[in-house]
C-alpha cells in the first residue's frame, strides 16, 4: 500500500472519519499556531480540509508538514476536541514512509539510531561536566536501542528516505 | 509514591551532553531539599518528539517504553529537567497504560530485549517537583539572598504544559507554577504579551528563518515589558533564546540583549550560592542580572 492509500484507509476508518467530520473549519488551530502567525503558507486548518476532501497525495507531498513545532496549541484550542497536532503526526509518519523527510531531520534520526542520542557526547562537554563536579555520562546501551528499532519500520524507511534523497527542504 | 524522595534521574541528551550547567543547578537545589537522584544507566534519548515520533510512532513508543521499564525496574518515579523528555515519557506512559493496542505493540518490541512495560511509575519535571512536592514554603525558607527588584519574564516551554490531558495542567493558557516559583525567590514575575508562545526551536534545523521569526516575537515582547531577564524551565527553549539569540538579532537587524536563565540557576543564586560555583555558560551575558541583585560575578 502506498502512503496515500494508507492515509485513505485511515481517513475512511469509522472512528477517525467521525472525529474529522467534527471539523467545521473555524480555523482556531491556525489562529493560535505560532508557525502560521509568521508563515501564512502553513495552515493546519487547510491540512485537515485536504484530508476531509481526499487530497491525500497533495497533503503528504507538502514540505510544510514538517514545520509543525508540536507545541499542541491547536490540540488545546480546538472547540471540537480534534487532536490536530496528533493528526499531523500521522501525516508526518506517512510522509516519511513515502520519502518526504527534511534532510537534517533524517540525519538526526540516523544519529539517534546509531548512537542512542540526539546530541553526541563531546570532549568539551566531558571536561565541562568534570568542572561542575558531575560524574561522566554513562554509556547508552545501544544494543537495546537498536534491537527495538530493528523490530519497527524505522531502518527500512531510513534507507528508503536516504535513497530518495529526502524532501526539497 | 508520595513520600518517596528518591527519583530516577533522566537528564536527556541536551542537558547531559550540551548543557551540563542545568544538571548542576538542578542537583544543587534538589540535594538541598533532600531529594536524591539515581542515575538511569544505559539511557539517554527519551526519544525526542520531533525526529523519532515524526518519523515512526512505534519506534518512539518502543524506545520510550524501554526508558519507562528501566525506571520501573529501579522502582522510582522519573525526574527530568527537560519538558521534551517529560512530555515524551509522560505521554507514552499514559498511552501505554490506557490503550491496550499501543501497549501490546510496545511490549512486543520490549520482549526483544527481555523487558516489559507495567505502568508502575510516574514522570515528573523539576519545576513540578519543586512546586508540588518540596513546596513553596520550604523553598521560601531556604532563600538567603532575596532577588528583590529583579523583573522576570517567565517562559514555561510548551511540552511542560500541553497537551493538558497528559500534563494535568489546569489552564495551559494561564499557567502559574513557574511564576510562583520565581516569586518565591523574591523576584517579580512581570506580565507580558504572548507569554505562552512556542519558542520555535523544534523547527530550527528545518526552517531557520521561520523558527527565528517565532522566537523574535517573544524576545520583542519581553523587552517591551521591561523585564531584566527571561527565566525558562526548558533546555530546548534555553538554546533557542540564549544560544541562538545573537543569530536571531543578526537575522532581523535588531538588538535584544535579554539574559536567559534556567529556573534552578535563579534559585541557586537566591539560595546564596556563589556565581562561580554555579557554572553558568550562557551566550547572552548575565552581568546586568547579577548587578541588579548584587551578586559579584567573580
Short description, anyone?
The complex is a heterodimer of chains A (169) and B (298). Chain A has 169 residues and is mostly helical.
Describe the structure in your own words:
- The complex is a heterodimer of chains A (169) and B (298).
- With 169 residues, chain A is an all-alpha fold.
- Chain A folds into two domains: 3-97, Fumarate Reductase Iron-sulfur Protein, Chain B, domain 2, CATH 1.10.1060.10; 103-163, no CATH class.
- Chain A has twelve helices and no strands.
- In chain A, α1 packs antiparallel against α8 and α9 runs antiparallel to α12 (154-163).
- The two termini of chain A are 25 Å apart.
- With 298 residues, chain B is α/β, with parallel strands linked by helices.
- Chain B has helices at residues 12-17, 20-32, 51-55, 57-74, 83-98, 100-110, 126-134, 136-141, 158-161, 164-167, 177-184, 208-224, 235-243, 245-252, 263-270, 275-278, 287-293, and strands spanning 6-9, 36-39, 78-80, 123-125, 151-155, 188-189, 229-232, 260-262.
- The radius of gyration of chain B is 19 Å and the shape is globular.
- The longest helix of chain B has 18 residues, at 57-74.
Amino acid at each position: 500500500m502506498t502512503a496515500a492509500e494508507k492515509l485513505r484507509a485511515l481517513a475512511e476508518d469509522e472512528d477517525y472519519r467521525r472525529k474529522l467530520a467534527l471539523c467545521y473549519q473555524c480555523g482556531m488551530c491556525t489562529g493560535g499556531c505560532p508557525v502560521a502567525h509568521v508563515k501564512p503558507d502553513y495552515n493546519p486548518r487547510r491540512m485537515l480540509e485536504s484530508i476531509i476532501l481526499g487530497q491525500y497525495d497533495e497533503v503528504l507531498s507538502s514540505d510544510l508538514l514538517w514545520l509543525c513545532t508540536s507545541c499542541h496549541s491547536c490540540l488545546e484550542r480546538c472547540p471540537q476536541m480534534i487532536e490536530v497536532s496528533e493528526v499531523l503526526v500521522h501525516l508526518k509518519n506517512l510522509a516519511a514512509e513515502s520519502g518526504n523527510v527534511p534532510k537534517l531531520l533524517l540525519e538526526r534520526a540516523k544519529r539517534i539510531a546509531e548512537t542512542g542520542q540526539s546530541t553526541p557526547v563531546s570532549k568539551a562537554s566531558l571536561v565541562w561536566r568534570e568542572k561542575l563536579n558531575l560524574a561522566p555520562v554513562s554509556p547508552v546501551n545501544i544494543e537495546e536501542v537498536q534491537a527495538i528499532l530493528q523490530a519497527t519500520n524505522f531502518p527500512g524507511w531510513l534507507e528508503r528516505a536516504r535513497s530518495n534523497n529526502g524532501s526539497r527542504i | 509514591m508520595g513520600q518517596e524522595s528518591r527519583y530516577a534521574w533522566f537528564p536527556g541528551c541536551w542537558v547531559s551532553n550540551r548543557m551540563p550547567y542545568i544538571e548542576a543547578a538542578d542537583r544543587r537545589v534538589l540535594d538541598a531539599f533532600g531529594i536524591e537522584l539515581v542515575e538511569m544507566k544505559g539511557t539517554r534519548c527519551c526519544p525526542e518528539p520531533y525526529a523519532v515520533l515524526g518519523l515512526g510512532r512505534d519506534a518512539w513508543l518502543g524506545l520510550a517504553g524501554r526508558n519507562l521499564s528501566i525506571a520501573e525496574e529501579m522502582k522510582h518515579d522519573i525526574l527530568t529537567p527537560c519538558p521534551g523528555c517529560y512530555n515524551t515519557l509522560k505521554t507514552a506512559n499514559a498511552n501505554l497504560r490506557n490503550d491496550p493496542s499501543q501497549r501490546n505493540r510496545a511490549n512486543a518490541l520490549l520482549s526483544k530485549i527481555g523487558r516489559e512495560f507495567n505502568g508502575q511509575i510516574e514522570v515528573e519535571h523539576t519545576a513540578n517537583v519543586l512546586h508540588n512536592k518540596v513546596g513553596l514554603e520550604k523553598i521560601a525558607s531556604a532563600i538567603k539572598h532575596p532577588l528583590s527588584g529583579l523583573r522576570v519574564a517567565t517562559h514555561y516551554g510548551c511540552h511542560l504544559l500541553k497537551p493538558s490531558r497528559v500534563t494535568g495542567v489546569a489552564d495551559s493558557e494561564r499557567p502559574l507554577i513557574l511564576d510562583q516559583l520565581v516569586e518565591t525567590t523574591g523576584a517579580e514575575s512581570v506580565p507580558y504579551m504572548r507569554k505562552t508562545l512556542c519558542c520555535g526551536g523544534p523547527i530550527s534545523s528545518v526552517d531557520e528563518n521561520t523558527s527565528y521569526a517565532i522566537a523574535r516575537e517573544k524576545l520583542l515582547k519581553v523587552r517591551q515589558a521591561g523585564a531584566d531577564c527571561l527565566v525558562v524551565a526548558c533546555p530546548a527553549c534555553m538554546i533557542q533564546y540564549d544560544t541562538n539569540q545573537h543569530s536571531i538579532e543578526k537575522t532581523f537587524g535588531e538588538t535584544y540583549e535579554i539574559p536567559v536563565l534556567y529556573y534552578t540557576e535563579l534559585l541557586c543564586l537566591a539560595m546564596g550560592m556563589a556565581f562561580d560555583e554555579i557554572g553558568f555558560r550562557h551566550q547572552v551575558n548575565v552581568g546586568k542580572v547579577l548587578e541588579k541583585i548584587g551578586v559579584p560575578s567573580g
